[in-house]
């Protein structure tokens, strides 16, 4: 018997208090008394040898140890809940995929109907966040990550090459009539703070050494940056692959000649090697890579992608 596992009632009490920031509200949710919740949390703190909460006049605050513990535990509890629901509902062949939010919304979602038609026996569960999945918790089968690959011990497969270039709405282009990259320094620029290619990288590649003094808008994901550009609020420096839907619909256009782009590989399929042995995982891998390798129209013809 594994003695390193904490008692489940204590874990549930801790998670509820952390989420609701209240012992009373956690007690109501779990149909217990506040005293019972307090007892369970104390039991867990004794088990861990660490204090998880601090009570003050402002309410309940998590300690640093509590916040770090919640980050690890909440995913494990979600995985347990999902697995239990699947068994109760008779769901088989479930596939758990995690992705970055913008990729999930702008690239993956428009294609999922095709996967469902091709593999009707697979029940797909998709979650999205910037935080990478912890495979040790058994949360997901596959993770679609964005960034510079440095994930030892995992299989890492690049999905496609992307072209990063300035994109703007037709109305914005008509209003500002920018002709050269240097003119961008006097135009409202939109920054995606998580992008592997920043404005300084692109401008330097175009021979513009002067730094950007300020950004009109800053966002922590590509989807919001693209939405702002569609509304004519500025110029977004984004992937023509991820922005394909906006480009196809004419909501966005490349600001300059499409040869003025930076090519990167920034989206990756990541998973433990053993996961590929699952039939559902292998099916999704083959399908996703076929989608990623399908011929893509260049942004010069107004499509910007598949």
In short:
40% of the residues lie in helices and 19% in strands.
List the helices and strands and how they pair.
Blueprint (H helix, E strand, L loop, with lengths): L7 H13 L2 H8 L3 H15 L4 E4 L2 E4 L1 H25 L5 E6 L1 H18 L4 E6 L13 E5 L8 E4 L3 E7 L1 H7 L12 E4 L6 H7 L11 E3 L2 H9 L4 E5 L4 H6 L3 E2 L7 E3 L2 E5 L7 H15 L13
Parallel strand pairs: 3-4, 3-5, 8-9, 8-10
Antiparallel strand pairs: 1-2, 5-13, 6-13, 7-10, 7-11, 7-12
Helix pairs in contact: 1-2, 1-3, 1-4, 2-3
In DSSP terms (H or I, runs of 4 or more residues), the helix count works out at 10
Number of strands: 13
**Which strand-content bin applies to the residues?**
15-25%
Radius of gyration: 24 Å
Low-confidence stretches: 297-306
CATH topology of the largest domain: D-Maltodextrin-Binding Protein, domain 2
CATH class of the largest domain: Alpha Beta
According to CATH, the homologous superfamily of the largest domain is: Periplasmic binding protein-like II
How far apart the termini lie comes to: 52 Å
Order of helices and strands: HHHEEHEHEEEEHEHEHEHEEEH
Largest sheet: 6 strands, mixed
How many distinct folded domains? 3
Describe this structure in words.
- This protein is α/β, with parallel strands linked by helices and 306 residues long.
- The protein folds into 3 domains: 8-87, Arc Repressor Mutant, subunit A; 91-160 and 266-301, Periplasmic binding protein-like II (D-Maltodextrin-Binding Protein, domain 2), CATH 3.40.190.10; 162-264, 3-Layer(aba) Sandwich (D-Maltodextrin-Binding Protein, domain 2), CATH 3.40.190.10.
- Helices cover 40% and strands 19% of the residues.
- The strands form 3 sheets. Strands 7, 8, 9, 10, 11 and 12 form a 6-stranded mixed beta sheet that branches.
- Strand 8, helix 7 and strand 9 form a beta-alpha-beta unit.
- Helix 1 packs across helix 2, helix 1 (8-20) packs across helix 4 (64-88) and helix 2 crosses helix 3.
- It is globular, with a radius of gyration of 24 Å.
- It starts with 7 loop residues before the first helix and ends in a 13-residue tail after the last helix.
- Residues 297-306 have low confidence and may be disordered.
């Amino acid at each position: 018997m594994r003695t390193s596992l904490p008692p489940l009632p204590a874990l549930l009490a801790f998670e509820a208090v952390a989420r609701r920031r209240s012992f009373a509200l956690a007690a109501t949710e779990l149909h217990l008394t506040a005293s019972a919740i307090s007892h369970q949390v104390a039991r867990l703190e004794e088990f861990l040898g660490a204090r998880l909460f601090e009570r003050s006049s402002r309410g309940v605050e998590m300690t640093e140890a509590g916040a770090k513990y919640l980050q690890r535990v909440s995913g494990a509890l979600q995985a347990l809940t999902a697995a239990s629901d699947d068994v109760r509902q008779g769901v088989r062949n479930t596939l758990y995929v995690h992705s970055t939010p913008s990729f999930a919304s702008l690239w993956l979602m428009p294609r999922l109907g095709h996967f469902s038609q091709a593999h009707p026996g697979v029940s797909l569960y998709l979650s999205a966040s910037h935080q990478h999945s912890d495979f040790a918790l058994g949360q997901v089968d596959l993770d679609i990550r964005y960034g510079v690959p440095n994930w030892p011990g995992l299989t890492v497969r690049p999905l496609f090459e992307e072209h990063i270039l300035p994109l703007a709405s037709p109305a914005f282009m008509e209003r500002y009539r920018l002709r050269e990259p240097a003119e961008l320094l006097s135009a409202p620029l939109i920054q995606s703070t998580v992008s592997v290619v920043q404005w300084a990288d692109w401008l330097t590649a175009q021979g513009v050494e002067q730094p950007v003094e300020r950004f009109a808008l800053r966002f922590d994901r590509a989807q919001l940056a693209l939405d702002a550009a569609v509304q004519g609020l500025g110029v977004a420096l984004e992937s023509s692959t991820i922005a394909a839907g906006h480009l196809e619909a004419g909501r966005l256009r490349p600001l300059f000649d499409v040869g003025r782009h930076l090519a990167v590989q920034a989206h990756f399929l990541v998973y433990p090697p053993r996961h590929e042995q699952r039939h559902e995982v292998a099916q999704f891998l083959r399908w996703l890579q076929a989608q990623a390798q399908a011929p893509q129209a260049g942004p010069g013809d107004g499509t910007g992608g598949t």
